[in-house]
Design a protein that fits this description.
Layout: E1 6-11, H1 18-33, E2 39-41, E3 44-48, H2 52-61, E4 65-67, E5 70-75, H3 90-98, E6 102-108, H4 124-154, H5 158-175, H6 189-198, E7 206-211, H7 225-236, E8 240-244, H8 246-253, H9 257-267, H10 273-284, E9 287-292, E10 297-304, H11 309-314, H12 318-322, E11 324-331, H13 332-338, H14 341-346, E12 351-353, E13 363-369
Parallel strand pairs: 1-5, 1-6, 4-10, 6-7, 7-8
Antiparallel strand pairs: 2-3, 3-5, 9-10, 11-12, 11-13
The chain binds guanosine-5'-diphosphate and magnesium ion (MG).
C-alpha cells in the first residue's frame, strides 16, 4: 500500500537556493490550496498538486469544497563535503534524506558575486559530484553494516549467501562511482525485497533542479553552459532535469492569480516553475490521481499507477476497501462533456467495475460498498 502523502527532500550545497525554492513552494501552496497545516515546521511544507480537473468538476457540481492532492516537501540543509563523516551535523541530515520518497537536488547555475559559493566558483558538475559522493559514502556504510551481519552466517545459510552476493554487487557498483538507482537488481523477488529494505539514498528517484538566473528562463536554460553540465550528469543516470529561477518563483509566489498570469506571460512562460516541479515529481514517483465528485466535495486522491479499485477506495476509508462491492467509473472529461452524472449514465459511459479494475488517472469514481 502506498502512503497518502509522498515526501520529497530538497538537497544541495549551501547557498544554491534550496530555502528560496522551499519557501516559494510552500507559500504558493499555502495560498492556492488553503491547506490548514501548510508549514508543519520550518523545514516541512505541504503543497497542493495543481489540478484543473477538480476545479472544473467543482464548478459543475457547485461543490462546497475542492480538495487537491498534496505532496510534502522537506528543506534539508547542511549537506556539505564530509557530511557522511559527520561534518556539519552531516549524519543527521543524511538520516532526514533516508525518510523521503524522492529527492530534488538543487544545483546552482546562476552567477551572482554577492552570493558566496562554498567552493569558490560556479561548477555544477563538481557540486553534483560533491553531494552525490556523500550520499554514496553513506550508502556504502549501510551496506557494510549489513555485510558484517550477513557474512558470518552466509557460509551456513544459502539464502544469506545469496543476499551477501547482492550486497557485494551493489557495493561494487557504488564504489565505481555510480548511483544505486542505476543498479540492475536481479529479477528475483528476494533480491528486489532486499534491495528495497536497504533504503539507499542513491536509489531514490531524483530530479535535478538547475537554479538559473532570470534571463535564462525563457529558453529553458538552453544557452546556459551550466545547465548543459547538469543535463549531462543527469543523463548518465537517467534522471530528469528541470530549469527554475528560485528567486523569480519567490516573487511569483507573492502575487495573486491575475498578477501571476500577467507576470508569467511577460516572462514567456505557460506555468510557474513550481507547478512544473510539482507535476514532474508526481510523475517521477509513478503517481496518478483519481477523483471523487459531489456537492459536498470534489477531491483528488493520490495512488500509485497500477492500483486496483478496492485499494484505491481504501485511500478514502478502510471500510470502502473492506466492504468493496463495485466502482462506478467515468473519465472526468467525458463527465464534464455530458454536464452531469445522470446524463453520462443515460449515454452509457459510466462503467461498473469490479475488484480487478485498475484505476486510471482522471477516473471519477463512486464506490459502492457494504460493511
Ligand atoms: N541571483 C539569484 N540569487 C538567488 C537565486 N536563488 C537563491 N538566491 C539567493 O542565494 C542566497 C542563498 O539562497 P538560499 O535559498 O538561502 O540557499 P540554501 O542555502 O541552498 O537554502 C539567498 O541570498 C538567495 O536570495 C537565484 O535564482 N538567483
Ligand atoms: Mg537553506
Amino acid at each position: 500500500m502506498g502512503k497518502d502523502k509522498m515526501k520529497l527532500g530538497i538537497v544541495g550545497l549551501p547557498n544554491v537556493g534550496k530555502s528560496t525554492l522551499f519557501n516559494s513552494l510552500t507559500k504558493a501552496g499555502a495560498e492556492s490550496a488553503n491547506y490548514p497545516f501548510c508549514t508543519i515546521d520550518p523545514n516541512v511544507g505541504i503543497v497542493a498538486v495543481p489540478d484543473e480537473r477538480i476545479k472544473a468538476l467543482g464548478e459543475m457540481y457547485h461543490s462546497k469544497k475542492v480538495t487537491p492532492a498534496v505532496i510534502e516537501f522537506v528543506d534539508i540543509a547542511g549537506l556539505v563535503k564530509g557530511a557522511s563523516k559527520g561534518e556539519g551535523l552531516g549524519n543527521q541530515f543524511l538520516a532526514n534524506i533516508r525518510e523521503v520518497d524522492a529527492i530534488v537536488h538543487v544545483v546552482r547555475c546562476f552567477e551572482d558575486t554577492n552570493i558566496v559559493h562554498v567552493d569558490g566558483s560556479i561548477d555544477p558538475a563538481r557540486d553534483i559530484e560533491t553531494i552525490n559522493l556523500e550520499l554514496v559514502f553513506s550508502d556504502i556504510e549501510i551496506l557494510d553494516r549489513r555485510i558484517a551481519k550477513v557474512a558470518k552466517q552466509a557460509r551456513m545459510d544459502k539464502k544469506l549467501a545469496k543476499e551477501l552476493e547482492l550486497l557485494e554487487a551493489v557495493k561494487k557498483h557504488l564504489e565505481d562511482g555510480k548511483m544505486a538507482r542505476t543498479f540492475e537488481v536481479p529479477d528475483d523477488e528476494d533480491a528486489q525485497d532486499w534491495f528495497l529494505s536497504y533504503n539507499l539514498l542513491t536509489a531514490k528517484p531524483t530530479i535535478y533542479a538547475a537554479n538559473v538566473a532570470e534571463n535564462d528562463l525563457a529558453d529553458d536554460g538552453n544557452s546556459n553552459a551550466y545547465v548543459a553540465a547538469v543535463r549531462g550528469m543527469a543523463k548518465e543516470e537517467g534522471s530528469e532535469v528541470f530549469v527554475i529561477c528560485a528567486q523569480i518563483e519567490q516573487e511569483i509566489a507573492e502575487l495573486d492569480d491575475d498578477e501571476k498570469a500577467m507576470f508569467l506571460e511577460e516572462l514567456g512562460l505557460k506555468e510557474s516553475g513550481l507547478e512544473k516541479l510539482i507535476k514532474a515529481s508526481y510523475s517521477l514517483l509513478g503517481l496518478i490521481s483519481y477523483l471523487t465528485a459531489g456537492e459536498d466535495e470534489c477531491r483528488a486522491w493520490t495512488i500509485i499507477k497500477g492500483t486496483k479499485a478496492p485499494q484505491a477506495a481504501g485511500k478514502i476509508h478502510s471500510d470502502f476497501e473492506r466492504g468493496f462491492i463495485r466502482a462506478e467509473v467515468v473519465n472526468y472529461q467525458d463527465l464534464l462533456d455530458c454536464g452531469s452524472l445522470s446524463a453520462a449514465k443515460d449515454k452509457g459511459i459510466v462503467g461498473l467495475e469490479g475488484k480487478e479494475y485498475v484505476v486510471k488517472d482522471g477516473d471519477v469514481i463512486l464506490f459502492r460498498f457494504n460493511v
